[in-house]
Write a structure and sequence with these properties.
InterPro entries: NAD(P)-bd_dom_sf, SDR_fam. Keywords: Oxidoreductase, Signal. Pfam families: adh_short, adh_short_C2. The chain is built from 13 helices and seven strands. Helix 1 crosses helix 2 and helix 5 runs parallel beside helix 6. Strand 1, helix 3 and strand 2 form a beta-alpha-beta unit. It has 329 residues and is an alpha/beta fold. The chain folds into two domains: 47 residues; 256 residues, Rossmann fold.
């Protein structure tokens, strides 16, 4: 009991420090016990919390508040789930285009005990993203940047999808590389749509990977007729393929940058178009936000320090089964 009360004191709140028994007088020994308590705490913290200046890849224990921050672009369901996983012990900087979504995210996270700063950002506008990047860096080293902002094929015109999904990722990569420190990770949420279909012409892929952000849309293949009913879907697929290529091409400048393609589906999609994908996949279930969060958590950690410039599919094997067959009878 005596030892456990001290361990709880150091890691907990320190309300119960007096050893059990009747031969101790709190009033007589309170000063010495207070000093001893703080000496124990200081020694433990000294060993538990590494110096980031010595090795920036060593993480602070999540139970202690560090001077590091996490930046998240897009705070819908996925962004919020990632904030919950990575935000403990960090300063959260959260951005979104919707002020209503931002306000709701701040209220939810603040009520749960997280430290949150919010900013309205249009990822299609480089200066807007740049302001957010510098705001996040003002707190201290940015440990991880997670880019989840994007539009689905049904959420906008082909032009707007290209601006948000394609240009938005390029803007985020360029803006945050200016403030990144050794050990900073950037994870861009993409889609398995970037792996589907017959692929893009090699010349277009090279353009998507290497063109400067202000010339990224200056390609004939990206001039999609507004009357084309399949235009938004085409723009979405091109954007997601472009995201993968740009992450790979940015690895040299970034050092640590990872892309991640996801597959999730709602109940209506399970019963409709996506049902055949789910049924034929090796895992044979719907992807959940937690599946994505688990991958992001690993990519943002020190354990993934040798992974960079890659696209990691978190799709339950859908893409591989479409390409090579299911192997099921």
């Amino acid at each position: 009991m005596w030892i456990w009360s001290r361990l709880w004191l150091v890691f907990g709140f320190g309300f119960v420090f007096v050893p059990t028994g009747t031969d101790h007088n709190w009033n007589q020994h309170s000063t010495s016990r207070f000093i001893l308590k703080n000496q124990i705490k200081h020694k433990l913290l000294k060993h538990l919390i590494p110096d980031p200046d010595v090795n920036p890849y060593i993480e602070y224990p999540m139970t202690f508040m560090s001077n590091k921050s996490i930046a998240i672009l897009g705070c819908g369901g996925m962004g919020l789930a990632i904030a919950r996983r990575l935000g403990a012990g960090r300063q959260l900087y959260v951005a979104d285009f919707s002020t209503e979504i931002l306000a709701a995210a701040r209220e939810t996270l603040t009520n749960d005990g997280y430290l949150v700063e919010i900013m309205q950002v249009d990822v299609a506008d480089y200066e807007s993203v740049k302001r957010f990047a510098h705001a996040a860096a003002s707190h201290g080293p940015i440990e991880a940047i997670i880019h989840t902002a994007g539009l689905s094929p049904s959420a906008g015109s082909a032009q707007r999808i290209l601006e948000v999904d394609l240009i938005g990722t390029a803007n985020s990569l360029d803006a945050f590389v200016e403030v990144a420190k050794p050990g900073t990770s950037m994870i861009c949420i993409a889609s398995m749509a970037g792996h589907m279909g017959s692929g893009l012409p090699s010349e277009l892929e090279h353009h998507l990977a290497t063109a400067s952000r202000d010339q990224l849309l200056e390609h004939a293949a990206l001039s999609i007729d507004v009357a084309d009913t399949h235009g938004p879907a085409r723009a979405y697929g091109i954007s997601k393929r472009g995201n993968i290529l740009r992450v790979q091409a940015s690895a040299k400048a970034w050092g640590r940058v990872g892309g991640k393609s996801q597959f999730r589906a709602g109940r209506q999609e399970i019963e409709g178009p996506a049902g055949k994908f789910i049924a034929s996949s090796p895992v044979s279930r719907v992807g959940t936000p937690q599946d994505i969060v688990n991958a992001v958590s690993f990519l943002a950690s020190a354990e993934s320090s040798f992974i960079t410039g890659n696209d990691i599919l978190v799709d339950g094997g859908v893409v591989s089964s479409l390409k090579w067959g299911t192997g099921k009878d």
